[in-house]
Design the sequence.
């Protein structure tokens, strides 16, 4: 972040870096997001395909700030679109980043934790695996992903954490689609979910965000 940008916080201390960063995320979603059938929010210009590396580091740092002191020992995400944000968050928290790999068959060896995840964007089920040697009962895991919609990806990762006997610190998400059930369901189950932007509505008239996102 530039010196001029940092000066903003000196003159306007109420304007926290976190607040500016997340306002910047909402602004970019409004400016660059495309709404596709599904509904799917396409943010391929900075988050999912082409990635704004500096911005990604800021998003990861903000998730890390929210989970500082939560005793996180490892970050778990799912390939492929969660990996960049997970790396950014892992670099800020100084913990390893592990990703669940998509597996071609459901026949996998005993050295692996495995679970089945329903893909929101592709409408199919797929198996994901994590090698047992990288996750065990001594871990306290932060789940990180780019999007939260119906919560299936996070449920799959929670299943893997359960199989490992590890603890879950919570979930950190870049964009939650608040009009879908995942966020509410996971929070009701007791999971801490932190989303940097929560889309309340998106349609031809524009995109609205939840005030506390
Ligand atoms: P869920 O499992 O919560 O239903 O969906 C989350 C996963 O689906 C994320 O890992 C993300 O890759 C993908 N996803 C869900 N909704 C969207 C969306 O609106 N846009 C994009 N780009 N990906 C999405």
Sequence:
């Amino acid at each position: 972040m530039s010196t001029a940008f940092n000066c903003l916080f000196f003159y306007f201390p109420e304007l926290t870096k976190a607040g500016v960063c997340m306002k910047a995320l909402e602004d970019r979603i409004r400016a660059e997001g495309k709404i596709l059938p599904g509904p799917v929010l396409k943010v391929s210009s900075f988050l999912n395909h082409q990635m704004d590396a500096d911005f990604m580091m800021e998003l990861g740092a903000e998730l890390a700030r929210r989970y500082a002191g939560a005793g996180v020992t490892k970050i778990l995400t799912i390939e492929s679109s969660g990996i960049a944000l997970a790396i950014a968050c892992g670099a800020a928290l100084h913990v390893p980043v592990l990703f669940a790999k998509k597996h071609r068959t459901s026949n996998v060896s005993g050295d692996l934790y495995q679970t089945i995840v329903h893909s929101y964007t592709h409408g199919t089920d797929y198996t994901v695996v994590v090698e047992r040697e990288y996750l065990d009962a001594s871990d306290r895991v932060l789940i990180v992903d780019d999007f939260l919609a119906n919560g299936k990806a996070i449920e799959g990762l929670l299943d893997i954490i359960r199989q490992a006997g590890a603890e879950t610190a919570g979930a950190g998400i870049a964009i939650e689609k608040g009009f879908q059930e995942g966020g509410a369901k996971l929070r009701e189950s007791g999971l801490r979910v932190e989303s940097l932007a929560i889309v309340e509505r998106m349609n031809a008239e524009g995109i609205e965000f939840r005030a506390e996102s």
